[in-house]
Design goal:
The complex is a heterodimer of chains A (157) and B (294).
Chain A (H helix, E strand, L loop, with lengths): L1 H17 L15 H8 L14 E8 L4 E10 L4 E10 L2 H14 L4 H4 L4 H8 L6 H23 L1
Antiparallel strand pairs in A: 1-2, 2-3
Helix pairs in contact in A: 2-3, 3-6, 5-6
Chain B lengths: L1 H7 L1 H11 L15 H10 L22 H4 L8 H9 L47 H4 L10 H15 L9 H22 L1 H11 L13 H16 L3 H27 L3 H24 L1
The chains are: A alpha+beta (157), B mainly alpha (294).
């Protein structure tokens, strides 16, 4: 009976990631992947930093076709060049919110050069984004780059 | 080049001779109108032919189907269902000639009179197949410009639905029922697209072959900051009064940008037109959020 129970738990655990997020031809209803739902219901790092603050870089990007806006801010430690904190504010679909939320998680503790290598494909893969939502991950990548650029512009003056 | 082959191949002649003996050749979809001259003498010898007084050429919304399989439409075993496959195909070989062609009813062979879009036959009232070269402006009988009178659209839309709504064709053939479903859907799309200013803008640009890129991202700080503030204001607004105030502001902005789009469109400044559309999209989204909250 114990095995039965563990099998059930394991079975569920294994089953969920395999659930297609939105597979076109399979006939299954389009669903947000559980990670996207998680980020949507429990978003990490929502908020705002003072954009005039010396340590803060602000990336503001938008996708006009769907009317999305995404703001991603980073707080950088000047000496080490590491991102010590990050926050975001996104108005858009669940995938856009999840992408930016994930982005803030990923940039924390990394150096600025490192985060520039974060690719939208990685974000999309982690969230199992369907093809129609890939541009949301692109937006998140753009936001990271814009934030870094803003910080560098502030410090190059 | 395949047409030359058809002209010269004797097997075709025998096939056509055979087919001329069939009582009803309403939709020899496979035969291109270029083969008219070939068919002429054959058709005239046919006994029980439709009562069309116009020229005996048979035509279906300009479909020319080149495969040999298509030619074999003859025989009592020919299924009407197959016909639908052919009629739905667009004439990809000579789309230019669509306007010059005479459209004919599949049911009674009456020719379209050209005064109204040929969605329904004027003599036998049967619903026709969807013709994608008839754009939404033509369907609803308005000029192809941005600044149209939206009030007039409803009347035209309802008039069309009185003629081709699927509920009216319950007792008709499977084919006509399918046509009615498609035509009705197309008319509904036309109505919806043209009534909403934003979708009308996108559509009218599309007709000029200017497509708004779905995946484009922008970094215009002013615009984005404004939209960010707007969306934040909507989120934080308390009470319907505050929301309605913001709503009124958005309405003003929408009107401004609609006008801006129109000017840009008339002057063929398509980049400005797209910029206007982008703004309108953002305002529309904000408006939707307000409506959700109200």
């Amino acid at each position: 009976m114990l095995r039965h129970v563990t099998n059930r738990i394991l079975g569920q655990g294994l089953r969920l990631p395999a659930t297609p997020a939105a597979v076109g031809g399979s006939g299954l209803p389009r669903m947000y992947h559980e990670r996207v739902v998680d980020h949507y219901n429990h978003p990490r790092n929502v908020g705002s930093f003072d954009k005039n603050d010396e340590d803060v870089g602000t990336g503001l990007v938008g996708a006009p076709a769907c009317g999305d806006v995404m703001k991603l801010q980073i707080k950088v430690d000047d000496e080490t060049g590491k991102i010590v904190d990050a926050c975001f504010k996104t108005f858009g679909c669940g995938s856009a919110i999840a992408s930016s939320s994930l982005a803030t998680e990923w940039v924390k503790g990394k150096k600025m050069e490192e985060v520039l290598t974060i690719k939208n494909t990685e974000i999309a893969k982690h969230l199992s984004l369907p093809p129609v939502k890939l541009h949301c991950s692109m937006l998140a990548e753009d936001a990271i780059k814009a934030a870094v650029k803003d910080y560098e512009d502030k410090h190059s003056k | 080049m395949w047409k030359k082959k058809l002209y010269s191949s004797t097997p075709l002649l025998t096939i056509l001779l055979r087919t001329s003996k069939i009582p009803k050749i309403h939709s020899p979809n496979s035969v291109s109108h270029k083969n008219i001259t070939l068919l002429d003498p054959l058709l005239q010898t046919s006994a029980s032919f439709s009562s069309s007084s116009s020229s005996p050429f048979v035509e279906i919304e300009g479909v020319s189907f080149p495969t040999v399989g298509g030619i074999f439409f003859g025989g009592p075993t020919f299924h009407r269902e197959n016909v639908n496959l052919f009629t739905k195909k667009k004439n990809s070989f000579c789309s230019e000639s669509k306007s010059a062609e005479k459209l004919q009813c599949w049911n009674c062979d009456a020719t379209a009179d050209g005064t109204t879009p040929f969605l329904v036959c004027q003599s036998c009232r049967s619903v026709q197949a969807v013709n994608h070269s008839i754009d939404y402006f033509q369907i609803l009988g308005v000029e192809r410009k941005y600044n149209i009178e939206v009030e007039k659209l409803e009347e035209k839309y309802k008039n069309w639905q009185k003629k081709l709504h699927p509920d009216l064709v319950h007792s008709k053939s499977q084919r006509e029922r399918e046509y009615a479903a498609e035509q009705s859907a197309r008319v509904i799309n036309a109505y919806r697209t043209l009534t909403d200013p934003l979708s009308r803008a996108i559509y009218i640009l599309k007709l000029e072959n200017v497509v708004v890129d779905e995946e484009e991202r922008i970094t215009d700080p002013e615009l984005l900051a404004e939209i960010m503030e707007l969306r934040e204001a909507v989120e934080e607004a308390e009470g319907n009064q505050a929301l309605n105030q913001i709503k009124a502001q958005i309405q003003d902005k929408m009107q401004y940008w609609c006008k801006s789009f129109e000017d840009a469109f008339l002057n063929k400044k398509y980049e400005n037109a797209i910029a206007s559309i982008q703004r309108m999209t953002y305002y529309k989204r904000a408006n939707e959020e307000i409506i959700k909250k109200l």
